[in-house]
Specification:
The complex is a heterodimer of chains A (about 140) and B (about 290).
Chain A: H1 5-8, H2 17-32, H3 37-51, H4 55-75, H5 78-90, H6 95-99
Helix pairs in contact in A: 2-3, 2-4, 4-5
Chain B: E1 8-12, H1 15-19, H2 28-44, E2 48-52, H3 54-62, E3 73-74, H4 76-80, H5 93-101, E4 106-109, E5 113-115, H6 120-124, E6 128-133, E7 166-173, H7 176-190, H8 202-218, E8 223-225, E9 238-240, H9 244-250, H10 252-267, H11 274-283
Parallel strand pairs in B: 1-2, 1-4, 2-3, 6-8
Antiparallel strand pairs in B: 4-7, 5-9, 6-7
Helix pairs in contact in B: 2-10, 2-11, 7-8, 9-10
Classes of the chains: A mainly alpha (about 140), B alpha/beta (about 290).
């Protein structure tokens, strides 16, 4: 796994409004016209140079968003939606902007309800929890 | 820290994996969580030690993590243990073997659980503190008649089967006397108890989680909890991967995003911690 972007890009890092809107357009492209993403990436290089950002790191975060988006569409898991929202911030798309993306949010408000409860978790680590998909304290990492 | 140091321990017991025919391994999210768990404990609460076996030792050595636990890494306890316990049925028994040799007061801390603030004042008021109460789900916490028992074993009549079990991903025990009693009862149940259940949850959670509460009840000790309910948003203390590990294992993208987010969350707090920076850079190849 590569998380190279972490040290070079902080999701709280300030970038220009122009960059933010460009990134938002890239995420929209990933959603609606994925075929345009390649050409968008070419432009991304120039934007990164202007903002003095590592292109590789930004591209990595974009690819991660796109990968997770594909997983979300396949699995329709609310947990993945929450993590998409977090990953968007690593692409300089804040929560408000993320809300403008045409991604259907499943109706849940926390990880507790997000995964089909199962009285039996046939894995050792699942222990006795009926909330098999739940992370305790997820809100402490931004969920 | 201005308060006394609290001694905690992690356990990495690979025998259940090996006995089940699976090579031992941890994914990046599990590994990072364990690293952060150890470092945050040492930052806020005190010392931490790792109990593992030779396979676990080789694993953490390979990943350059031997210095993560300031209290050291012990392989003697788990390697020399020859209790008649089936590691597949009682997959968390390694924790109890380590608890047996660890002097009280102490904290047993799961590697997938992170404590983000000092606990000394909270724990100082209590004899026993577990993570949170568990519901008596009938499919998980079986009746005495449904639990598998070794030949000649009988449940004592004084067991109170009504008390709520306690999740022991975090467990503080103040006194040796209670610790010994709890472990004696747990071992009595686990020893030579080799009949295969239909699932690998109920036998272990009885031996570890329900017996804790039953023993405390018998000794008239109350079990305190860090969280009255695991999923309250008022929780400012605990991050526990718990069953979420299952989802992480199934999705590499989710693992990567989780790791980024966890590093972002604790990064500032551990920014001056050379071990953290070293492990993040070394392990994740940054």
């Amino acid at each position: 796994m590569k998380i190279k972007s972490v040290l070079t890009i902080n999701s709280n890092q300030k970038v220009s409004a122009t960059m933010q809107h460009f990134m938002l357009s890239l995420l929209k492209a990933a959603l609606i016209h994925p075929e345009n993403l390649g050409s968008g990436k070419k432009q991304l290089k120039a934007y990164c140079e202007n903002e003095r950002l590592s292109y590789r790191a930004v591209e990595h975060n974009l690819d991660l968003f796109v990968g997770l988006l594909a997983d979300y569409r396949k699995e329709n898991s609310p947990v993945l939606y929450h993590f998409l929202r977090l990953q968007a911030q690593f692409c300089f798309v804040d929560e408000q902007m993320f809300g403008s993306l045409p991604i259907v949010a499943l109706e849940i408000d926390n990880l507790t309800d997000s995964v089909e409860p199962s009285p039996y978790c046939h894995s050792q680590e699942a222990g006795s929890s009926i909330y098999c998909g739940g992370m305790v304290g997820g809100h402490l990492i931004g969920l | 820290m201005v308060h006394p140091s609290l001694a905690a321990f992690h356990v990495l017991w690979t025998e259940p994996s090996v006995a089940g025919g699976k090579p031992f391994g941890m994914n990046d999210a599990e590994m990072l969580t364990m690293i952060v768990s150890a470092l945050m404990w040492q930052k806020h609460n005190g010392t931490i030690k790792l109990y593992t076996d030779n396979t676990g030792y080789a694993f953490i050595e390979k990943h350059g993590l031997l210095k993560l636990w300031g209290g050291g890494v012990d392989t003697e306890v788990l390697e020399s243990n020859n209790y008649p316990i089936d590691p597949e049925i009682f997959w968390a028994a390694g924790k109890l073997m380590a608890l047996e040799v660890q002097a009280a007061p102490c904290v047993m801390l799961d590697t997938d659980l992170i404590i983000v603030r000092p606990l000394y004042e909270l724990l100082a008021q209590t004899a026993i503190t577990a993570l949170h109460p568990e519901r008596l789900e009938a499919d998980v916490y079986l009746t005495p008649a449904l639990l598998k028992q070794a030949d000649g074993f009988a449940f004592p009549s004084y067991y109170n089967w009504e008390v709520l079990p306690a999740n022991t991903a975090f467990l503080y025990i103040r006194d040796e006397s209670f610790k010994d009693f709890y472990l004696r009862e747990s071992k009595r149940f686990m020893f030579c108890n080799k009949e295969r259940p239909m699932e690998f949850v109920s036998q272990m959670v009885f031996a570890e989680q329900r017996l804790l509460s039953i023993c405390a009840d018998y000794r008239r000790l109350s079990v305190n909890h860090l969280l009255p309910d695991p999923f309250l948003r008022s929780n400012e203390t605990v991050i526990h991967l718990w069953g979420f590990k299952r989802l992480l294992r199934e999705n590499a993208n989710l693992q990567a995003v989780y790791c980024q987010q966890l590093i972002k969350t604790v990064g500032e707090e551990l920014a001056t911690n050379n071990l953290f920076q070293g492990y993040i850079q070394g392990y994740f190849g940054l």
